[in-house]
TrEMBL record:
Entry superkingdom: Bacteria
Residue ranges occupied by any Isochorismatase-like domain in the UniProt entry: 14-165
GO MF annotation terms: hydrolase activity
Entry keyword annotation includes Glycosyltransferase: no
Protein name from the UniProt record: Amidohydrolase
Source organism: Achromobacter aloeverae
InterPro entries according to UniProt: Hydrolase_YcaC-like (IPR053152), Isochorismatase-like_dom (IPR000868), Isochorismatase-like_sf (IPR036380)
Record PANTHER family: HOMOLOG OF SLSA IN STM, HYDROLASE YCAC-RELATED
Keywords in alphabetical order: Hydrolase
Lineage of the species this protein comes from: Bacteria, Pseudomonadati, Pseudomonadota, Betaproteobacteria, Burkholderiales
UniProt keyword annotation of Hydrolase present: yes
Amino acid sequence: MASTNGMLDPDDSVILLIDHQSGLFNTVRDLPIPDLRNYVTAIAKTATLLNIPVITTASVPDGPNGPLIPEVHQYAPHAVYVPRTGQINAWDNPPFVQAIEKTGRKTLIIAGTLTSVCMTFPAVSAVQAGYKVYCVVDASGNWSKLATDTSIARVTQAGAIPTDTFAIVAELMRTWNRPEGSRFAEILADHVCPEYKCLIESYGKAQAVVKDGPETKLDKYK
């Protein structure tokens, strides 16, 4: 892509999905768990559709934090999992950083549960290491809205860019005028904004009426 106009470049991006674990999800209180799972799924599907590298990791998955939710590797089968040896900040784990460096890319899209730790800590470290960092707040999840608000302030002050799942999908796809346009619409409608699916259904019905005529015959009442 010749110019990104200040937007995300999918050819320079790596997606880091950190500690999206079943046990940790039980502590999330700033957004509904079904929404969180859907947002993570949307990011995984988008990464697969655009062939963006995905690196995952988990914090003590054989303990109460639990395993990664299955959607992560189900919908991003190309994702590389990097085990840790107890580090809370994934950036403190050398193999994790090495996996990022191996991609040769310098833009990181980070989501992690919990927001104020698993998203924020590596985001701050990555900025310091010279990466451009986007933090997907609604695909992370935290124990309180206040904790999320302070985390957004912290990553912003550190130089990272807070964003949300809908914006990430739209920014990476860039245009509807592409062969995968309808598949992006499905991702947004199925996992991010159900209301958008209603718009798609209404438009489809309107097109059918234009083609086949109205289903409801009201002319007899005229």
